[in-house]
Amino acid sequence: MTSTDKKVGNLPEGKHEPLTRETAAAGVESVLKMLEGRWKLVILFHLFGGQVMRFSELERAIPGISQKMLIQQLRQMEDDGIVRRIVYPQVPPKVEYLLTEWGQSLCPVLDALLNWAAARPEQEQGETSGDQLGA
Amino acid sequence: MTSTDKKVGNLPEGKHEPLTRETAAAGVESVLKMLEGRWKLVILFHLFGGQVMRFSELERAIPGISQKMLIQQLRQMEDDGIVRRIVYPQVPPKVEYLLTEWGQSLCPVLDALLNWAAARPEQEQGETSGDQLGA
């Protein structure tokens, strides 16, 4: 038994509203949808740690992305409340991107996901015969 | 400042291998892909907490799912090492499903995701003028 076994119950017990199995699943699904797409995660990992980046810096930092796609992804992340856009009123305009406090707080959660993935056993036995359990 | 601010750095620091921004993003993406699809999450939330369920019980518990889809989802989760299938050698055969220890340990991680989603501020200001920052 690991320490996690003690913490897990039938359903997660957290700061959120009481959940049924269905609303919990739907809640996780909506978070997954929000993060879907390779670029959003790459953008997130570039901005974690309080990084502030201009559009052109992000463009250079993510070689595979098109300008149009970067604009689209940043706009969606802004609308979702993950990214904040700062426009400096100067000519030519200077625009910077950073994470909101809420966006920044996703970092330890994604870290937990990575730790979970890294803890995957080498060879997990998919099928067990009832015989082996003494049935 | 919240307590999470202290924990977050440029990149997650966990038990996993040292990561670049790109490998971290790809790692999270592969976990998201593994959980993609509404049914897998619903199945997970039905099996969290050490639940052991027969195929017919899962079928009844998830009204919207077809038999074919349930078989497919369970098979994929078995292949991923999340679900364990126990076959009892009797006539008619009895087949039970439960989570592996690794699958079970996903519960607190999904809980953290739900807590993160629940902590979303009511109205997050997407765009900030540089003026407001004294620029």
Automatic annotation (TrEMBL), chains A, B:
<keyword id="KW-0805">Transcription regulation</keyword>
<feature type="domain" description="HTH hxlR-type">
    <location>
        <begin position="26"/>
        <end position="125"/>
    </location>
</feature>
<dbReference type="InterPro" id="IPR036390">
    <property type="entry name" value="WH_DNA-bd_sf"/>
</dbReference>
<keyword id="KW-0238">DNA-binding</keyword>
<keyword id="KW-0804">Transcription</keyword>
<dbReference type="Pfam" id="PF01638">
    <property type="entry name" value="HxlR"/>
</dbReference>
<dbReference type="GO" id="GO:0003677">
    <property type="term" value="F:DNA binding"/>
</dbReference>
<dbReference type="InterPro" id="IPR036388">
    <property type="entry name" value="WH-like_DNA-bd_sf"/>
</dbReference>
<protein>
    <submittedName>
        <fullName>Transcriptional regulator</fullName>
    </submittedName>
</protein>
<dbReference type="InterPro" id="IPR002577">
    <property type="entry name" value="HTH_HxlR"/>
</dbReference>
